[in-house]
Amino acid sequence: MASTYEKIATTTLGTAAGTVTFSSISGAYTDLVVVFVGKLSAAATCFLRYNNDSGSNYSQINVIGDGSTGAINQIRANQTGFRLYDVSVSSNNINILIFNINNYSNTTTYKTTLHRCSDTGGTSEVGMGVSSWRDTSAINRLDFVTGAGTWSVGSTFTIYGILAA
Amino acid sequence: MMAATYTLISSVTVGSGGAANIEFTSIPATYTDLLVKLSGRSSRSGAVAEEFLLTFNNNTSGYSERWLRGTGVSAGTSTFSGSSIQQLGQTGAAATANTFANWEFYIPNYAGSNNKPISLDGVTESNSATEGHALAYLSAGLWSNSAAITSIKLSAGSYLAVEHSTAYLYGISNA
Question: In a 3-state reduction of DSSP, which class is residue B88?
């Protein structure tokens, strides 16, 4: 029986890094699932970018719970990357980010991503949302970029391919 | 052929009479992450929803969670710390017959020595338009414990998980 859920690539940081890149992603799958488990060295705005595009081509809608102030509805338009939720810098807590990038290799539609954040750190959030990258190119590269600080040692980034065929 | 990355470890289907707990024991450490898929209903009468309680390794300390819940009209967020992960709403006995809640838990690096984060998503269902008869949950859980997770227990609290409730445990491997 064909495997329908395959690891494409994984990186566990042995040294802290400001950017983590996956390039030459095969277009052979139907969808991608990306799982990040880790934290940052310092609080910062972080982005996920497709195909190294840093233009203002990303938009997203989020619903977030911070544990105290009620549900937060958030719209971010014309971002220079798919802006990630608050990623924990707490020493004891680890953030989970899961992205579902459906139909990532087609060349006729803008790319939509479903995303989910879980963190129980001090100023952190639980949330989900949807984002759009206004480009019809097949996605063949992912960059996880920090605005300040670095992705901490031990953080793990994994890409899985989902196959419908 | 590539190694399988998404493997069924075990499953539970609750039989006639219901069950106080749904448990997975002797979980091997050979995977990277765990994924649980739960379809549940509580025997609690008079309630359209009732919580199940999630614990690991039969340990009842060190749990915390931050959650967001929608009722169909409003949404709220809060935190909790205690003896289990508790924001696991299941469809209750007062809900429409044959409706079950639907949950998914993702537990990365479950065999490592760090504290264990858990990403939980779920809904209850009652096939009703009444506010609160169906709930949607997002939750970020944390078990502050360095032990590898070797068992998972879903307790129905003072009630039972009813017949036909199911749970599936999958191992996700990035090796």
Answer: strand
Interface test with B, best of A3, A74, A120 (most B CBs within 10 A): A120
Beta strands B101-108 and B116-123 are: antiparallel
Which residue in B84, B79, B78 sits closest to B145, CA to CA?
Answer: B84
Tokens at A48, concatenated: 């996920």
Residue numbers in chain B where pLDDT is lower than 70 = 1-3
Handedness of CA A74, A77, A82, A86 (dihedral sign): negative
Chain B residues touching A10 at Cβ < 8 A:
174
Which residues are A35's β-sheet partners?
A: A98, A158
Average pLDDT over residues A78-89: 82
Q: What is the DSSP string of chain A?
A: ---SEEEEEEEE-SS-BSEEEE-S--S-SSEEEEEEEE-BSS---EEEEETT--SS-EEEEEEEE-SSS-EEEEEEEEESSEEPPPPP--SS--EEEEEEEETTT-SSS-EEEEEEEE--STT--EEEEEEEE---SPP--EEEEESSS-BPTT-EEEEEEE---
The DSSP call for residue B100 is -
Tokens of B20: 């106080």
Q: Does B78 touch chain A (CB under 8 A)?
A: yes
What is the C-alpha to C-alpha distance for residues A71 and A69, in angstroms, rounded to an integer?
7
If you measure CA to CA, which chain B residue comes closest to A118? B140
pLDDT at residue A123 tops 80: no
Residues whose CB is less than 8 angstroms from the CB of residue B139 and which lie 6 or more positions away in sequence, other chains included: A118, A126, B65, B66, B67, B68, B85, B87, B118, B119, B120, B121, B122
Q: Per-residue pLDDT tens for B96-147?
A: 999 999 999 999 999 999 899 999 999 998 888 888 888 999 999 999 999 9
